């Protein structure tokens, strides 16, 4: 398998962590989708990463689709419950974490891809309110539990840590560590795992 992605993307990081936890072999192909010479649309018409290229020519895109498929390839380190409420709970955590990244990335793009005179303060505030509300919801749902769901690592924890790690990387002014020490405790614990150490955004 080949994974097209960047070292800064939190969505790519989520896939890379899942592949490491599942002990799956793959080749990482670095791609800057913002570069004029990018060829990402040859693989993904949406022009986004991550993009997974299978040996038989099948192409998968969207991190949520990719990680769900990867979790079926081997029983090692099962990350998504097979069915029922537990599965829905993990997927809701993933949706919330992805939503934080979606909103924060829109803010970053507004600030880096548009001229200052064209930037909308109201738009930025709207997106940042989603980030703030979601962090609060995550903290309240986690409480003092050691993991987001159940008693072992799941895709929920990976997704949350990828969102928090990207905020620390791109939005250091958001002091989620002080505001939500339980999230910081979870993040620090997960950051000791080799899969997280090897995928720190840069």
Describe the overall structure.
This protein has 202 residues and is an alpha+beta fold. It has 2 domains: 2-70, Glutaredoxin (3-Layer(aba) Sandwich), CATH 3.40.30.10; 84-193, Glutathione S-transferase Yfyf (Class Pi), Chain A, domain 2 (Up-down Bundle). Helices cover 52% and strands 7% of the residues. The protein has helices spanning 10-21, 63-70, 84-113, 121-142, 155-170, 176-179, 181-190, 194-197, and strands spanning 2-5, 27-30, 51-53, 59-61. The chain has a 4-stranded mixed β-sheet with strand order 2-1-3-4, with helices on one face. α1 links the parallel β1 (2-5) and β2 (27-30). α3 (84-113) runs antiparallel to α4. The radius of gyration is 17 Å and the shape is globular.
Under the CATH scheme, the architecture of the largest domain is: Up-down Bundle
Hey, roughly how much beta strand do the residues contain?
A: 5-15%
* Unreliable segments of 5+ consecutive residues: none
The CATH topology name of the largest domain reads Glutathione S-transferase Yfyf (Class Pi), Chain A, domain 2
Provide the domain count.
2
Number of helices: 8
Shape: globular
CATH class assignment of the largest domain: Mainly Alpha
Helix content: 40-55%
Could you describe the largest sheet, including whether it forms a barrel?
4 strands, mixed
Distance between the termini: 23 Å
What class would the helix/strand composition place it in?
alpha+beta
Oligomer: single chain
- Rounded to an integer in angstroms, the radius of gyration calculated over CA atoms is 17 Å
> What's the order of the H and E elements?
EHEEEHHHHHHH
Task: Please give the number of β-strands.
Answer: 4
